From TrEMBL:
Residue ranges annotated for the SAC domain, each copy included: 283-648
Signal peptide segment: 1-16
Biological process (GO), any one: phosphatidylinositol dephosphorylation
Keyword Cytoplasm: no
Originating species: Aspergillus mulundensis
Pfam families to which the protein is assigned, alphabetical: hSac2, Syja_N
Keywords for the protein's UniProt record, in alphabetical order: Signal
PANTHER family recorded: PHOSPHATIDYLINOSITIDE PHOSPHATASE SAC1 (PTHR45662), SACI DOMAIN PROTEIN (AFU_ORTHOLOGUE AFUA_1G15890) (PTHR45662:SF7)
The protein, known as: SAC domain-containing protein
GO CC term, one of those recorded: endoplasmic reticulum
Molecular function via GO: phosphatidylinositol-4-phosphate phosphatase activity
Biased composition (Acidic residues): 131-157
Length: 960
């Protein structure tokens, strides 16, 4: 595409980082956007450089680094880092356009000239170290790819050498860029802590998708001509993960001084982020994991039938503007460049998988077995293809597999499950299988088949601390129904008809959630379906149907859905015209949407490929032909990639997907992967999830403060405010039984685990209700949206209300903040008008069953001897602002915890005074609402024992 820079050189100038097109000076795209910009060190503002600037590559006073493109600008508090692509690997070519995976990135701080120069020099040294491992000489291209023609001939030939020296098989893991930067930050005495320093010394993290799935080379059997033979001489077909296909940008003679012994100066007046070193390391590792793909000319975010036209790209439309935001992974990191209008620098990335295999088939004698050729075949075939093919005639094809991970509800296995408030599901991946001829001749049909995977569209969770975790359903039926229907209506607008396939067990622990899934599907159809079209639902008990490791029995599922699959069809494109559309999609899920889903999707893909080849006059059984192992390997590599991105390990059952065989070795390998997943679930995934949410712009910088305190982060897809308001409404409806009472207000606060105490851990989130007659403290089950118990305190029994500092722990700075840790204590006399009741439907009553009063049990009426006793009820304010709300309300001011608690106290005081005025002949009782420390910082330090410090330090050492 004109204007999209294939290669960018980055210079550390005195007044800012300068980015300009590499080779043949500066160029401009169709919109007049300059391909030379500056990032100011002080403000991080991106501005275009006017006019044709001089080539800075010859300047000895500038440190320059050539890159293959930008990932984006990462900003954390007042720190910013430019992420650039320094290595790439060509993995496919689609319609003559190269597709690359990112093999390595450099992280360049933009805080000062010295810091940027040092990072650039380090990146160049790392490239040189990689070149020293190359024992072979590889010629470079004669022309710069960015100077090629734009009519389709500008793409690199898949067999030609890339634009820079090709590296050999020796690729040392170079993490020194981010490691050196962050270690220097620690050296400047910023408060990152000893655990952050300890973390930096670790060599491996086990983070998701950080090891490349090596793609196996399949050799054709000698001595016979198989029905399908694998063409090894084509590097795309072989799809080897050898580093011979990995490109590293050449490092010119280094300009600038060595970075050894120097320190990174932080910006002035900045507040350091405790986990910044770990975030930078994770950012480098995740983008170097070979799980991100890009193309300069092809839109990987859209199917082959929805590609932007050449006229649109040559006109006003930039590639990133045509990209589908659902799969545009680095859009948030690219926002500074998009806002500045520097469109040539905006390179969309897709997370997922891209693989390709060329194969040869021998057509059988006679015409196609179809009695009536399809409409697409009649319109799309060339005249010579209509003739009867002779026996043994060979034809070459190319199979391309593209998986796109959605940026909605992203994250890792047990931390992102089910659906969110917008109907997005976890681990949503669109997979496209494309069949074409190797040279992508537009006169030949191009077939595209789409599939979808995604978590069960209900609110549920599973504990990461169990090998066989039990799914726990959350929220009310109405809340689940709304999200369920919203999810499928969104899919229907995108794909048409839907066939849902559930592969979970019809026995515990998966039975309950499977039954709920089926129930909501039936209710949706009973209410009219999706715009009058019923939702297809098929429950295939995978483990039962395929017991004994007979995974080939998944063909039974394909057989059940054969009519539906035929109805949905595939996409057929010829000469740029869509001859046939896919009218529906199969949406497959198991519990994780990984292993069982991968086997089933491979079977559906096999069915589609056989049908498409039959359209071409070739009748073949891919499952029964041993020479079609290339197909299994391609799908197995796809499954491994998606599994690593979601669960940190390769997919289970991968041996069957590759070989169509299952034995004890595969079972033992799966057991080892299960153990690895278990470790990552309870150790690495928590911080990784916070990083993913931050890189996608779903949370603010505060997510790292929250993680340092709680060792977990909020779910941006779930509205906590909505859940809390629902809890208040539910509690009010159930516990305020007297219709004469007027509801005045409700709040959610933290309260000690044991009543009548100030500091009984753990603190629980409860609901406080206020009417004109009483105060209600309700303990709420947030999983089932039910009130477990409540205590009613008559306003006339309240003798004192104190509000002030309420610190329960001093383990972190956030927990020791006297302004944010604020609460109130209500002191009251026990009497006849006060009551404690327990919901016997959710919690077994400890009193005489004869005393049960319908749903609620009066567990204790206070006796006359208790009337003179005084009790307390303590409440602590929840954080009113977190990483999610800060992102959603960046410009709106929030009330402080101090003001919020004081407002609650005033509301209670007003209700008490109003009650006194309206009560006839009521005895005037003095009561006091005044500020007073509940637990001061000094007292909290005394109460926080060594054991708590030890436990917290151990947790932080493991998780943070």
């Amino acid at each position: 595409m004109p204007g999209l820079l294939r290669k960018i050189v980055i210079f550390a100038a005195v007044d800012g980082l300068i980015l300009q097109s590499a080779g043949n000076g500066l160029r401009y795209n169709g919109n007049g956007d300059s391909s030379s910009i500056r990032i100011d060190y002080k403000t991080n503002r991106i501005s275009s450089l006017p006019g044709p600037a001089s080539d800075l590559s010859e300047r000895k006073d500038f440190a320059g680094l050539e890159t293959y493109g930008l990932v984006g600008l990462l900003t954390v508090a007042s720190y910013s880092f430019l992420i650039t692509i320094t290595q790439r690997q060509q993995v496919a070519q689609i319609q003559g356009k190269p597709i690359y995976s990112i093999a390595n990135v450099a992280v360049i701080p933009t805080s000062s000239h010295e810091d940027a120069s040092r990072a650039i020099v380090q990146a160049k040294e790392n490239i040189l170290q990689g070149e020293e491992c190359d024992d072979t000489d590889t010629p470079s291209e004669d022309t710069d790819i960015s100077d090629a023609e734009t009519d389709g001939s500008d793409a690199e030939d898949i067999n030609t050498a890339p634009a820079s020296p090709v590296q050999g098989s020796c690729h040392p893991r170079n993490d020194s860029i981010s490691s050196n930067i962050t270690e220097n930050m620690i050296g400047k005495k910023l408060r990152f802590g000893r655990f952050a320093a300890n973390w930096l010394s670790r060599k491996a993290m086990g983070l998701p998708g950080l090891s490349t799935a090596e793609l196996e080379t399949v050799e054709a059997e000698s001595g016979s001509i198989p029905m399908v033979e694998f063409k090894e001489e084509n590097p795309v077909a072989a799809r080897s993960a050898s580093a011979a296909n990995t490109e590293e940008l050449p490092a010119s003679a280094s300009d600038g001084e060595s970075s050894k012994g120097s320190e990174l100066e932080p910006p002035v007046d900045t507040k350091p982020i405790e986990l910044l070193p770990k975030l930078l390391r994770y950012t480098k590792l995740i983008f170097s994991s070979r799980n991100f793909f890009f193309s300069y000319d092809y839109d990987l975010t859209r199917p082959v039938s929805a590609q932007p036209t050449a006229m649109a790209l040559n006109g006003r439309l930039s590639l990133h503007k045509a990209a589908d935001e659902l799969y545009f992974w680095n859009q948030h990191l690219m926002l500074p460049f998009i806002t500045a209008g520097t469109h040539p620098f905006v390179l969309p990335l897709v997370q997922g998988f891209v693989g390709q295999s060329e194969f040869t088939v021998a057509a059988k004698s006679g015409p196609s077995s179809e009695t009536e050729p399809s409409e697409a075949r009649i319109l799309g075939e060339k005249q010579e293809a209509e003739d009867v093919q002779t026996a043994g005639e060979k034809r070459n094809f190319l199979l391309t597999l593209i998986s796109r991970r959605s940026v909605k509800r992203p994250g890792l296995r047990y931390l992102r499950r089910g659906v969110d408030d917008d109907g997005n599901t976890a681990n949503t991946v669109e997979t496209e299988q494309i069949l074409s001829v190797p040279d992508w001749d537009s006169s030949h049909n191009i077939y595209s088949y789409l599939q979808l995977r995604g978590s069960i569209p209900l609110y549920f969770s599973q504990s990461p601390y169990s090998f066989k975790p039990v799914p726990v359903l959350h929220h009310s039926p109405e809340t689940n129904r709304f999200a369920f229907e919203r999810h499928f209506r969104t899919i229907s607008r995108r794909y048409g008809k839907i066939q849902a396939v559930s592969l979970i067990d019809k026995r515990n622990p998966e039975l309950k959630i499977g039954e709920q899934y089926e129930k909501y599907a039936q209710e949706l159809n009973q209410s009219g379906g999706i715009d009058g079209v019923p939702l297809g639902f098929e429950w295939f008990d995978f483990h039962n149907e395929c017991r004994g490791m007979k995974f080939e029995n998944v063909s039974r599922l394909v057989g059940r859905l054969k009519n539906t699959l035929s109805e949905f069809k595939s996409i057929v494109v010829n000469n740029g015209t869509v001859l046939q559309k896919q009218t529906g999609i199969v949406r497959t899920n198991c519990m994780d949407c990984l292993d069982r889903t991968g086997v089933a999707q491979c079977a559906f893909g096999q069915w589609a490929l056989e049908r498409e080849l039959k359209e071409e006059g070739i009748d073949i059984d891919l499952g029964g032909d041993s020479s079609t192992r290339w197909f299994n390997i391609l799908w197995a590599d796809n499954g491994d990639a998606i599994s690593k991105q979601y669960s940190s390990t390769a997919a289970l059952k991968g041996d069957y997907t590759r070989t169509r065989k299952r034995d004890y070795r595969g079972a033992l390998n799966d057991f080892g992967l299960t153990l690895s997943r278990y470790y990552n679930n309870i150790v690495n995934d928590y911080f990784s999830q916070a990083c993913v949410d931050y890189l996608l712009g779903n949370v603010s910088t505060q997510v790292f403060q929250e993680f340092a305190t709680e060792l977990q982060s909020a779910d941006p897809g779930i509205s906590v405010q909505k859940l809390r308001q629902n809890a208040i409404d539910t509690s009010c409806r159930l516990v305020v039984s007297d219709q004469s009472e007027e509801f005045l207000g409700g709040w959610t606060l933290l309260t000690p685990h044991q009543p009548n105490t100030l500091r009984t851990l753990p603190f629980e989130e409860s609901v406080l209700l206020l009417t004109d007659a009483a105060v209600y403290s309700c303990r709420f089950d947030w999983n089932t949206d039910k009130v477990l118990s409540f205590e009613r305190i008559d306003l006339r029994s309240i003798t004192r209300i104190n509000y002030g500092t309420y610190i329960t722990s001093t383990l972190t700075d956030a927990q020791s903040d006297e302004q944010r840790n604020f609460g109130l204590v209500i002191e009251f006399r026990e009497g006849d008008n006060n009551a404690l009741r327990v919901n016997t439907r959710s919690l077994q009553s400890e009193v005489d069953p004869k005393a049960l009063d319908n749903q609620w049990d009066m567990s204790a009426w206070f006796t006359s001897s208790q009337r003179n006793k005084t009790r307390i009820m303590a409440f602590k304010a929840l954080p009113l602002s977190n990483s999610v709300t800060q992102t959603q309300r960046r410009k709106s001011a929030t009330v402080s915890e101090t003001d919020w608690v004081q407002n609650i106290c005033e509301e209670i005081e007003h209700a008490m005074k109003a009650g006194q005025r309206t009560t006839a002949n009521a005895e005037s009782r003095p009561f006091v609402v005044e500020p007073a420390e509940i637990i001061s910082l000094a007292e909290a330090k005394k109460r926080t024992g060594l054991l708590e410090h030890l436990v917290h330090d151990i947790k932080k050492m493991v998780w943070a």
